[in-house]
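Standup notes
- DV: blocked on the single-chain target, sequence here:
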Amino acid sequence: MSFHSPTELRLVLRQDVTVPAVGMFDRFTGHARYQVTGDEIRGTFIVVPETAPGSDTCLVRVIYGDHPETPQRERVDEPRIRRTRVRGECGPLAVDALPDASRLEARGQWVRSDGALRPVPRSTARSLAEVVRAVVAHWATRPNRLGLVRAAARHAQQQPDTPRQAAREAMERELDSIRAQIRQHWSVLQELEAVAQADTPALPVLPPLLHIDYLDPISGSTGILSARPRLNPCDGTITYSVTGGTRVRGDFTVGPVRLSRDPLPGGVSVQLGAGLLPDGTGREGEPVVNGIRLRGSWNCTDAGAFTLALPESIPGVRRADRPDRPLPAHTAAWISSVIRALAVAYRDRNDVDVLRLVAGKNRVDQLRQAPAQAVAELRRHEAAAEARLTAAREAEAAFASLSA
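- DV (later): unblocked, structure below
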């Protein structure tokens, strides 16, 4: 950096209080260098214009110490206020609307003798704010102020990655991210609409009694349980009333995974019992094993992950009377075996896709809400991001025009 025309001056800190300094101005970079030489305040302050012509506000940044190209490292001639060495920078500051020193936030760090960085002491921060304000106030009166702004713009434009370019690229990435999220949610809405518009299929007619294979947990041999099936046409589930062939008696409602957010729900869900009881404490027809009434449900999102034998233990089942007590081993084995058998029976039905479509149609309105709200919110973010990007591009173009 090559500074020219050193000028001796006095900076006005407050009424009747000034500090001597030497001001130098670089016509190539537009930066101004103020070397303060007072008894209690000494060091260099660099003023960097950050304004493109045509903007409503003239802004500058003030760097503590020389060589602003390396803002994170130790700088030459960092200011010392009394015995406190200060590192950092502040801004952007509105040159033509500077606040009083008492309201000016002159950010900085105290560099201790061991090199550690600490917050600037309060008294030092007050003095720092005074000298920063005085430096900027003097810079604002320079007759070649516009020339310094233009020079700073040309210099910044010649750098490989100017702040404005980086800001514009960040805004472009933000807008791309928002639009990608919109596309993702919109794709879900289109899939849900396809389910809603699909022809309602003819529902299967179930026989009065089914015989279903299961694995006897005691002997390990295959047995046959008897169940009366009842189709629930609103959601594509089947309630199986197990009546014989095992030690288990009661109702099981089987269908696609209940909490799935897929347009066409997959997997298998087994709910112990049928409809909710009026008091909400349980379900009608909850199964009984070895005299113990059971409550709970099991969801498996991967329809290919279970067989008559696996998983060996089904989680999510508890005693209805004492939910805090563990199930006896034989009870847990029998209920797990029946749950697996009914899940396999539902999964392997030749009309299971029809039942999944019925379930999907039942859930469409509910599932539309979250992505529709997300799209509406993202559209607002998109409009705001587009406005910011347009302003950034205009500012960058105006900034670039200075180098012409």
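- Follow-up: The mean pLDDT is 89.
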